[in-house]
Amino acid sequence: MRRNKWTEKELQILRKNYATKTKREMCVFIPNHGAKAIKTMARKVGIKKDSHRKFTPSQVAILKEKYANTSNKELAGQLQCSERKLYNAAHWHGLKKDLSYIAEGQRKRIKKNPEIYSKNWFKKGDAPQNKGTKMAAETKEKISHTFFQKGHIPHNALPVGAGRMDDDGYVWFKPEGARKVVQKHRWVWEQANGKIPKGYNVQFRDGNRQNCALENLYLISRKEQIHNNTIHRYPVEVKTAIRNIAKINKLIKN
């Protein structure tokens, strides 16, 4: 039986529609080839069916809104689909669980079954299996050229007083007599007021992280700092407006 050759136009139709269209629809789009031939060609060119192709726009909106902080079992029940299908759809849309949600789940599992996890923990007084063992002379000779030699100065070492700025805009510098660089604004505050209490941060009055003058710095608790940087610092009317705008933007994006 002679097989029909695929034209470039047919391949374009295949690439554009195969992931989201049904078998019957593809046979209508490409009438010169049967369903089996279409499936075989899709596999050859590396095209797969979208696992989320049966999700409605409203289901996708719920998935994007809740996936990060909701268990797969609970969300699958809301969307009336299997957990496998839910996971595949989330992967397709590039969704991931929040790290805080993952950490909280792990904490609950440990609290529920501490005996299962604790047996693998290092306990106080435990020593590593290789403690006190020396490196084999043959191995040491092979890798000795990678060791730091006495008096070696790292390429990124800074002289006393030198500074740099990190990606977040904070200034780091090396004070006299110190071995490591420190954040300048914290160092300036501590020189005048003593050590920063636990649970507190130093902030800038003018918002300029490069202005480390003492009069531009003030101390604030992390609880207050978080409150000042979230939606909860606004009146109820403003919070409602912000949430509505976010919902509209999601609908536009979808």
Which word captures the global form? extended
How widely separated are the two ends? 46 Å
Low-confidence segments, ≥5 residues, pLDDT <50?
none
Mean pLDDT: 85
- Helicity, in percent? 40-55%
CATH class of the domain at 163-228: Alpha Beta
Major beta sheet summary: 3 strands, antiparallel
In DSSP terms, counting alpha (H) and pi (I) runs of 4 or more, how many helices?
Answer: 12
Helices and strands, in order, run as: HHHHHHHHHEEEHEEHH
- SS content category: mainly alpha
Our Rg estimate from Cα atoms comes to 30 Å
Number of strands: 5
Strand order of the largest sheet: 1-2-3
Q: From the 3D coordinates, which CATH architecture of the domain at 163-228 would you assign?
A: Alpha-Beta Complex
What do we call the CATH topology of the domain at 163-228?
Homing Intron 3 (I-Ppo) Encoded Endonuclease, Chain A
Beta-strand percentage range = 5-15%
How would you portray this structure in words?
With 254 residues, the chain is mainly alpha-helical. Among the domains are: 8-44; 55-114, Orthogonal Bundle (Arc Repressor Mutant, subunit A); 163-228, Homing Intron 3 (I-Ppo) Encoded Endonuclease, Chain A (Alpha-Beta Complex), CATH 3.90.75.20. It is built from twelve helices and five strands. Helix 5 (72-79) packs across helix 6 (83-92). The longest helix has 18 residues, at 236-253. The model has no long low-confidence stretch (mean pLDDT 85).
